[in-house]
Write a structure and sequence with these properties.
This protein has 405 residues and is α/β, with parallel strands linked by helices. It has twelve helices and 13 strands. The longest helix is centred in the middle third of the chain and has 28 residues.
């Protein structure tokens, strides 16, 4: 056997093997092949926090198969994901399988398409030990915090509870915020809304600019309004622009899928993983809003074909978050020409959300006329205020179809 490629997921393995041909055998590690020992802390605190690893019983047969395949291969390609966990998986494979640097290559790709896989094969690299150490540090912290705090939870609250480096801090933040909520002294107020008719006869809503402190005060004002006259004190119309949001990162995809589709975080990531493994979208764990030049070109061509050249406005997004990995791409469709895909209803809906966001990000601004109306009331110095927008040029909204609010 000339080449052995090891990936994380078995579903991914089938697709990649089809792209690479008969000279390549693709196998899956099914995630991590070893982890910290289950018994004890398994971290040598006095020896620079060295982790003690073991191969789980359920992975021993798989490791045996991988060792045999690696021994028969001229070159071994470690193709786990590019995030910290993926880099650690590649390192563990290298260590456990007894691989050698002269015939081992580390490759990464952000989408499961033939061009991306071939490009990865043509541009291998070595294992990023800094990223491996980052994953190991997180894993060690998880074990230390859990090992030290969980017994306290069992004793003070209830058995079987667990503590971790993230959830323990999150619980504290929630408790502190809850104390602030309990200590807050709310002050009630009343808002007064009115409905008016313009010259066109179309009704519109306006709100009194002042809020009333009590219900009695609000009722007195409304009684005076019954016999009052109303007039337009001021009218202004200003042109405004609205730019599209950048393409999805992991967190913004989770937020938008929850808001628009009602998906939980776990549901969103499960479906996104399936779309990625099927070659529908790029890698779904990323904090980058960057798009490759090839992707921008493809999206621009698709916009021109579907909506016209006036709707194209090329944008290069950059993530402002400290530590963001700009080498990664944002989440986008692998083939922009596929406006829809086969699959379950959930897969189709999430794909459509990703497609719209990516395409809209490269479209022109929406142009609107924003109208502000000040309405005077004869019985009071207080007046009403109304706002409205009229779309003059849809821009990115033509693809994204968001509300004008």
């Amino acid at each position: 056997m000339k080449n052995l490629v090891i990936v994380e997921s078995p579903a991914k393995a089938k697709t990649i093997e089809k792209f690479l041909g008969k000279d390549f055998k693709v196998m899956s590690s099914y995630g991590h092949i070893r982890d910290l020992k289950k018994k004890g802390m398994s971290v040598e605190v006095d020896s620079d926090f060295s982790p003690l690893y073991e191969i789980p019983a359920e992975k021993k047969e798989l490791v045996k198969q991988l060792k045999a395949a690696a021994k028969d291969a001229d070159t071994v390609w470690l193709a786990s994901d590019e995030d910290r966990e993926g880099e650690a998986i590649a390192w563990h494979l290298y260590e456990v399988l007894g691989l050698k640097p002269d015939n081992t290559r580390r490759i990464v790709f952000h989408e499961i398409t033939k061009p991306a896989i071939i490009h990865a094969i043509e541009n291998p690299r070595t294992i990023d030990i800094d990223r491996v150490n980052a994953q190991q540090a997180r894993r060690v912290l998880d074990r230390i915090v859990g090992f030290e705090l969980s017994p306290i939870l069992w004793k003070k609250i209830k058995p079987a509870l667990s503590a971790g480096r993230v959830q323990s801090v999150a619980v504290r933040l929630i408790c502190e915020r809850e104390k602030e909520v309990e200590a807050f002294n709310p002050e009630p107020f009343f808002r007064i809304n009115a409905q008016f008719s313009g010259n066109s006869g179309e009704p519109f809503k306006a709100e009194l600019k002042r809020r009333m402190a009590t219900e009695d005060e609000a009722r007195v004002f409304l009684e005076h309004c019954a016999s009052a006259s109303f007039s337009v004190a001021d009218l202004s119309v200003k042109p405004v622009k609205r730019a599209p949001a950048p393409p999805f990162t992991t967190s913004t995809l989770q937020q938008e899928a929850g808001k628009r589709l009602g998906f939980s975080v776990n549901t969103t990531m499960r479906i996104a993983q399936k779309l990625y493994e099927d070659g529908r979208i790029t890698y779904m764990r990323t904090d980058s809003t960057n798009l490759s030049e090839l992707a921008i070109k493809d999206i621009s061509s698709a916009i021109t074909k579907e909506y016209g050249s006036d709707f194209v406005k090329v944008r290069h997004y950059h993530t402002s978050s400290k530590g963001a990995q700009e080498a990664h791409e944002a989440i986008r469709p692998t083939y922009v020409s596929n406006t829809s895909i086969p699959g379950t209803s959930q897969e189709q809906r999430l794909y459509e959300l990703i497609w719209k966001r990516a395409v809209a990000s490269q479209m022109s601004d929406a142009l609107l006329d924003k109208t502000n109306v000040e309405i005077a009331v004869s019985c009071s110095a207080d007046g009403f205020k109304a706002e409205g927008e009229v779309v003059k040029f849809e821009g990115f909204m033509k693809a994204w179809r968001i509300d004008a609010e």
